[in-house]
Amino acid sequence: MLYFSCTPTPELYKRTFTQEDLDSFDKMRWFGGAYQGTPAEKYLLLEGLKHFPEKASFWRELGIAGLKRGIPYMFYPYYDKAVQYDSIEWLGYRGYCILYFNRDYERALKDFNDLDPLTPNFVDHPQAQSIDYMRGICHLKMGQHEKALEYFDRHLNSEVETVGEDYVATYAFLYKGITHYEMGDKQAAQEAFEWGLRVHDSNADLEYWLAKCLLEKGDTKNALVHIQKAKNLFKQGYKHGRNYTEDFYQTYMPYIEALEKQISNI
Prior knowledge:
Helix content is 65%, strand content 0%. By secondary structure, the chain is mostly helical. The chain has a domain of 88 residues: Serine Threonine Protein Phosphatase 5, Tetratricopeptide repeat (Alpha Horseshoe), CATH 1.25.40.
């Protein structure tokens, strides 16, 4: 009987993560089946961070998977690392996540305010949303209506100037109108909702809030017209909504039906 022995060669088993691997991470992730939040993706990220510990986007990627699954302790430490290594890139994204997922308006606002001076003469758009628009939402939800209007107006003016009115996202008009509505200025609220509908004529949320304004002003005839438009548009899917979280002031069919009933019974 023959026995063989061999001396281990550690170099053969040494794991590497080269700059080329780093540059092709997305290809490795998607074509290798290592989709966001899977053990395979986490393995790739952690392996990469052993070799490139200051790679901010890897820290961010680890954090976002936990956030989407409602596991905040997996979000904050990783996102904080991303901000530590690349504040300009990820500070606004962290604020966006804190705003929409955690509803921590003061903390989100701090991130937006901290980011602003890092990019002078430039309006940051993390997750394709203007920080002025999101600062407006923060102030609105904190009950600071004058500040909310300041930022919504700043956002609207900038968007109209840079891309044109037709390309301004619907919900800047909606939240500007809601801010006026909560301040008790129904006329200014109506004008904001009507402005939004001139730009985007198929929006259940704007129609619903316009109907509320008209009802409170005693114009039941037009209020009924707009609440019925809201109902039809909602059924067709022309309504606001977000993945993973409920949106601010989100409209639901029971709200529309209750207002329609209220108007019809007058």
